[in-house]
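Async update (no meeting this week)

Hi team, since we skipped the sync, here's where things stand on the single-chain job. The sequence we agreed to prioritize is pasted below, unchanged from the tracker. I ran it this morning and attached the output directly underneath so nobody has to dig for it. Comments welcome in thread, and please keep replies under the output.
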Amino acid sequence: MLAVFNKSVAKSPDALVQGPDTESVSVFKDGYLVNHFSSVHPASVVVNLSSAGFIAYSSGSHNPLLPRVFAVVDDIFCLLEGHIENVADLKQQYGLNKTANEAMVVIEAYRTLRDRGPYPADQIVRDIQGKFAFVLFDATASQSTFIASDADGSVPFFWGTDAEGHLVVSTDSKIVKQVCGKSFAPFPKGCFFTSTGSLQSYVHPINELKAVPRVDSSGEVCGLAFKVDEDSRKGKLGMPRVGSDANWSQHY
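Output:
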C-alpha cells in the first residue's frame, strides 16, 4: 500500500525532513509516483484525495495473513494492511454491524477520537490488537491524517519525505527509498502520527521519540530510525474538549 500526503495536510516530523538531497524526487510532478506505482502493480487502485494527495494499493498478490482492506465512511478514507484480532469486540464497542470490515473499525475509532471520546489517542490505538499498519485521511473540514503501526511492527511499513517535503508512506520499502532518498525510515512500531507532525508511542505514551541516524555497511548515513527515549518524560497527557469541528490533532 502507498499513501502520499501534501505537506499542507501532513506536517512531517522535523527530523524526517532532510536538507537538499539529490537522491529524492518530487512525487507529484507529472504524476511521477502514481504512474510508477501503477507500472509496478498493474492491478492497483488509486484513490485521488484532490490536492491533499492520494492513497493507492494493489488488488493483486498479497500476503493472505496480512490482507489489505479499504473503506470510506463520510469522507474519511482508511487503508489497512494486516488484521485486527479483537475486531468483534471493537465492533460491539463502537456499535458497528457484523459486516463492517477492519478499516471501518479504524474509521469509527478515529471518529470517536476526533469527536472527543473519553480516551486519549494512545488508548484508542492501544485498544486495537493485532498485526496491522494503517493510513487514514479525514477529508472533511479537519483535513487530518492519522497513521499507525502495531506494537510489534508486524507489517513492514516505511515513510519519508520527497524533494518538496511531502509525506510518503508505504509497505514497499523500495518505493520510499527511491523517492525519499536519505529521509527514508522504517515507521516506528507501536507509534501513531497525526497531521501536525506529531509522532508518539502509544506503547510508551509518557516517553518522547528521538531520531537516530542509520548507517549502512560502508559507514554512510542511509536514513533514520525513530526510537523511544527512555530517559525522557512528557508532561501530563490529555485531550482538551474543544468541539468536533476543530482539528483534534493540533493537541498532539
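Quick observations from my side:
The first helix runs from residue 32 to 40.
The first strand starts at residue 2 and ends at 5.
Reply here if anything looks off.
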